[in-house]
Amino acid sequence: MIYSSAPGKFVVMGEHAVVYGKPALALAIDMRFTLRMAPGKTFRVNGKPATNATMSPHMRWISQAHGNQPVSVFIDGRVPAGSGLGSSAALSAAYSGAVRTLSGESADHESVARESYEAEFAAQGRGSPMDTSAACNGGGVALNVPYAKKDLLWHIEKNGNAWDVSRFDVPEMTFVIGNTGIRAATGPLVEKVRKYREESEFAYNIVEEIGQLTLDGMKCITSNDWVELGTLMSYNHRLLGILGVSCPELDSLVEAALPTSYGAKLTGSGGGGCMVALTDKPEQTAAAIRAAGGTPYIVKTGVPGLEVKVREKKPANQGKKKNPRKSKRDEPSE
Ligand code: PMV
């Protein structure tokens, strides 16, 4: 039996612009996808035959890359889907880690980050390796931040873009995430920005500005300047709004959070999903988000990335006292 888990993430700054090789910073959070997997006769998810609804294109892509060996997988997903918190990346990383281990291949962070990014790219047709890198490495990951390159984790190239993905440890900061409850798929929003940026010099320049803003924000982190970082995050939100990826519900959660926080912005692809606020009054910010109709989560960062463990099934009766009344039907079946 393979046990595998990987965290979701939020983006401090730089989403969308990172797709074009601009800098970004993502932090893994204490919301994880946990799964257990065993070889099976047919594909089964949570005890039922796999369907298109229960087995995502990412999972299918990864299984196919390893010879389509049928597996039975039980998934416990604590990252809300379509909410900008990297749920598909966390699932892909956990699934890839488990399938690779089952196939006798290495499930080291870099191999899984590369494979789960390929699965994401195939499913979405676009995107950066930010989410899958955060899911595998955990902690903080900086993309294309020149001075972070001393802690380079991996270099990934795709579709004419290139990313230096580096480990970036951040000091203690408190973030509150607010979920609008509106699910929005990443692919169409990334496509919307791609089209706008391609057709308009104005949008092209906004993407460039987000890149520069992110570098400025990272300097604030290094100097513990939360006031300036918050200001830059709020400005980042306005730029994302101009690119057309915010929505009234996100704007209203950001507005609600601002009086008790240093700054706030949407996180992830937008169009719904979540916003994030940097605050030192987490309870008050969470209450303001709730009062504005959102679901708040006070998140913990600095969490571990992908973890894969193998536990051999004990042969029947080993190490167990015989219980004559327990029938075979009591054994868990995968
Ligand atoms: O909404 P999420 O969690 O899939 O995050 C998407 C982040 C983008 O920058 C918009 C896309 C990407 O692939 O980097």
Question: What would your notes on this structure say?
Answer:
The protein has 334 residues and is of the alpha+beta class. The protein has a single domain (2-310), classed as 2-Layer Sandwich (Ribosomal Protein S5, domain 2). The chain is 37% helix and 24% strand. It contains nine helices and 13 strands. The chain has helices at residues 57-65, 87-102, 109-124, 130-137, 186-199, 201-222, 226-242, 248-257, 282-291; strands at 2-13, 24-39, 44-45, 48-49, 71-77, 140-143, 152-158, 161-167, 175-179, 263-267, 274-278, 295-299, 307-310. The strands form two sheets. Strands 1, 2, 3, 4, 5, 6, 7, 8 and 13 form a nine-stranded mixed beta sheet that branches. A hairpin with a 2-residue loop joins strand 3 (44-45) and strand 4 (48-49). Helix 2 (87-102) crosses helix 4 (130-137). It starts with a strand and ends in a 24-residue tail after the last strand. The model is unreliable at 324-334 (pLDDT under 50). The protein binds (3R)-3-hydroxy-3-methyl-5-(phosphonooxy)pentanoic acid. Residues 15-16, 18-19, 84-86, 127-128, 130-131, 186, 190, 268-269 line the site of (3R)-3-hydroxy-3-methyl-5-(phosphonooxy)pentanoic acid.
